[in-house]
C-alpha cells in the first residue's frame, strides 16, 4: 500500500470538504483481514478502503454485502453502520463514471470487449452489463476464468475464443484493457491496436505510466483512448460519499492524483 494513491485522493477530498478527517494507509499481512476489521470496530473508524490481496477475505468477513460486492465476491470499501460493517464494491461505478467523464459514453446498447478476467475486469464486466450494454465479450488466456467473468454479464456476456479476438474487437464500440499488459512500459500490447475500429472508444485501466504503448498506438490512429486514472478517482469518490454523505470534490482529487503521478 506504500504506493497507493488513496491517501492523496481521500485526504485531498476531506480537506476540500472542510472535514477534520484523515485517511491512513496501513500494511495488513495476507490472511489477517479479519483482524483488521476487528480493529475497525475497536478504534471507532467510519470505514476503510481495501486493496488486493484482501478483497475476497474482507467480503467474507463483513456483516453485510451490497449486490455488487456479493456478485463479485470482492469488497473494496467498508462502511461502518452502527454495529455492522457493510462491504461495498465501488470499482464498477467508478469505471462507469470515469467513462462518462472522459468519453461522454453511455454503454447502453453498446457492443463492448473486456480484455482480462481478474478482479478489475470482472467489476467492469458486471458494471457494463448492469448499465445496459448489448454485449460484453471477454477475452482471456484462460478460458475458465473468462467464463466466470462473462457469466457476470448474464445473457449479454460471452467468451471470445483465441481465433476470434480481432473480429470481436473490430466490432466493438468500447474496448477495455483490464490486464497488466503495458504496465511495465516495455511496449507490450494487450491486443493489436489496428483491430480497434475507428470511432470506437478504448480504455486502458493502467494509469501509470499515463500512456501505455497501446494507448499511444490507438491515439496515433485517431481513436479516442483513455487511461484508468478516472476509474481510480471516481471509485474513491464513491467511497467518500458513502462515508461522509457529502458530494465528492472530484476535480480536486483528480488534480492531486495527477500531481503525485507526475513525480513518479
Automatic annotation (TrEMBL):
EC number of the protein: 1.1.1.25
Residue ranges annotated for the Quinate/shikimate 5-dehydrogenase/glutamyl-tRNA reductase domain, each copy included: 109-180
A GO-annotated cellular component: cytosol
Keywords annotated in UniProt: Amino-acid biosynthesis, Aromatic amino acid biosynthesis, NADP, Oxidoreductase
All copies of domain SDH C-terminal, residue ranges: 228-258
Signal peptide: none
Entries under InterPro entries matching the protein: Aminoacid_DH-like_N_sf, NAD(P)-bd_dom_sf, SDH_C, Shikimate_DH, Shikimate_DH-bd_N, Shikimate_DH_fam, Shikm_DH/Glu-tRNA_Rdtase
Keyword Membrane among record annotations: no
Molecular-function GO terms, alphabetical: NADP binding; shikimate 3-dehydrogenase (NADP+) activity
GO biological process: amino acid biosynthetic process; aromatic amino acid family biosynthetic process; chorismate biosynthetic process; shikimate metabolic process
A Pfam family that the UniProt record links to this protein: SDH_C
Segments forming domain Shikimate dehydrogenase substrate binding N-terminal: 1-78
Matches recorded under NCBIfam families: aroE (TIGR00507)
Protein name per Swiss-Prot or TrEMBL: shikimate dehydrogenase (NADP(+))
Organism annotation: marine metagenome
Amino acid at each position: 500500500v506504500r504506493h497507493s494513491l488513496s491517501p492523496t485522493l481521500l485526504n485531498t477530498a476531506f480537506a476540500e470538504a472542510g472535514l477534520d478527517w484523515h485517511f491512513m494507509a496501513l500494511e495488513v499481512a495476507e490472511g489477517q483481514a479479519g483482524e483488521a476489521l476487528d480493529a475497525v470496530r475497536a478504534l471507532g473508524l467510519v470505514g476503510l478502503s481495501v486493496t488486493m490481496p484482501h478483497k475476497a477475505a474482507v467480503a467474507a468477513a463483513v456483516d453485510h454485502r451490497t449486490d455488487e460486492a456479493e456478485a463479485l465476491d470482492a469488497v473494496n470499501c467498508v462502511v461502518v453502520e452502527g454495529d455492522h460493517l457493510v462491504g461495498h464494491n465501488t470499482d464498477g461505478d467508478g469505471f462507469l463514471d470515469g467513462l462518462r467523464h472522459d468519453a461522454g459514453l453511455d454503454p447502453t446498447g453498446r457492443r463492448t470487449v473486456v480484455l482480462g478476467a481478474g478482479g478489475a475486469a470482472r467489476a467492469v464486466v458486471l458494471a457494463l452489463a448492469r448499465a445496459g450494454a448489448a454485449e460484453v465479450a471477454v477475452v482471456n488466456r484462460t478460458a475458465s476464468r473468462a467464463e466466470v467473468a462473462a457469466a457476470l454479464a448474464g445473457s449479454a456476456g460471452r467468451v471470445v475464443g483465441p481465433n476470434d479476438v480481432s473480429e470481436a474487437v473490430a466490432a466493438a464500440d468500447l474496448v477495455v484493457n483490464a490486464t497488466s499488459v503495458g504496465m511495465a512500459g516495455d511496449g507490450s500490447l494487450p491486443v493489436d491496436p489496428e483491430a480497434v475500429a475507428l470511432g470506437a472508444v478504448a480504455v486502458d485501466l493502467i494509469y501509470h505510466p499515463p500512456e501505455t504503448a497501446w494507448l499511444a498506438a490507438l491515439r496515433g490512429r485517431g481513436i479516442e483512448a483513455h487511461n484508468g486514472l478516472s476509474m481510480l478517482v471516481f471509485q474513491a469518490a464513491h467511497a467518500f460519499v458513502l462515508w461522509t454523505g457529502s458530494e465528492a470534490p472530484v476535480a480536486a482529487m483528480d488534480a492531486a492524483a495527477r500531481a503525485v503521478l507526475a513525480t513518479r
